[in-house]
DNA sequence: GCATTTCCTACTAAATCACTTGGTAATTAG
DNA sequence: CTAATTACCAAGTGATTTAGTAGGAAATGC
């Protein structure tokens, strides 16, 4: 599992999309302004997200991006893997007994931990995150309302 | 939270240390050979681990590294943070209401998730990993025996 | 004294990050 | 039809990170 800033940008952008995409597509320009990420970098990220069918693009005026599937069917692991490209760490190629025994033992331990981290992130969906926030809607809600009217005005 | 290959090297090396350091210190040369990591890179990683007191070095012949504290008191998050240096993602500096409202809402969501990932890794200790493996000691155990006698010979 | 080992600094090729530039293709509004 | 808007695509770029080299100095055991 790899969790870099690139993955964070992707998760953040997808969260923005999930939050603001309820009525109509969201443009990358909006996400760019909302999240402070450069437009072209977003394009690169969304190119990767699109090939994994996590988002769906609509061209032309009034276009933008939709989520490719339900927010409940998109896990954090899905997003990170889409942009960050899973790298195999253990050089022995998984389960084979490589050079020394201790090496492979450590690798097995790491591999187990790595799987656990992945499963943890695979278990959290975009929908979970959004709902988790809606649960504690107090001062946060006001921000959302201000934000949507604000972004329309700008 | 940041989980790069650098952090993986560190965790792997610390695992090696926990596994092989039960009787006497382990040299970086041994870890280097076991895990296929360059000696100087290990030195850099262990310099960071040492300042966080996760390892303790002993110079001279017969020297090497001990764990800085009990394997149960060293979490995976400890190790990763030591070498990878926690980077704050949200530019708004945490909880302030930055430029737009939607931005900070997304940031809050990400921040919560990030904390959750951290807690997950903070909850797994080196000792846990080692014991977890000792539980299923079948063909793995044979490898350990071969390895320790092997590394002594080399 | 000598070999071993940690400890320390500086340097480097390669990769990655985040972004810029400069487009093309599809779609809508007028 | 034209112009504006938006996704889509490719090449390049400075800054940073990665993983490693090189060349030591300081401590310690034999």
Describe what this molecule looks like in 3D.
Two copies of one chain form a homodimer. Chain A is mainly alpha-helical and 154 residues long. Chain A has one domain: Winged helix-like DNA-binding domain superfamily/Winged helix DNA-binding domain (Arc Repressor Mutant, subunit A), CATH 1.10.10.10. Helices cover 60% and strands 5% of the residues of chain A. Chain A contains seven helices and two strands; from the N terminus they run αααββαααα. Chain A has a two-stranded antiparallel sheet with strand order 1-2. In chain A, strand 1 and strand 2 form a beta hairpin. In chain A, helix 1 (5-20) crosses helix 2 (28-35), helix 1 crosses helix 4 and helix 1 packs across helix 6 (126-135). Chain A starts with a helix and ends with a helix. Residues 93-97 and 138-154 of chain A have low confidence and may be disordered. At the A-B interface, helix 1, helix 2, helix 5, helix 6 and helix 7 of A face helix 1, helix 2, helix 5, helix 6 and helix 7 of B. The first copy, chain A, binds a DNA duplex (30 and 30 nucleotides) through helix 1 and helix 3.
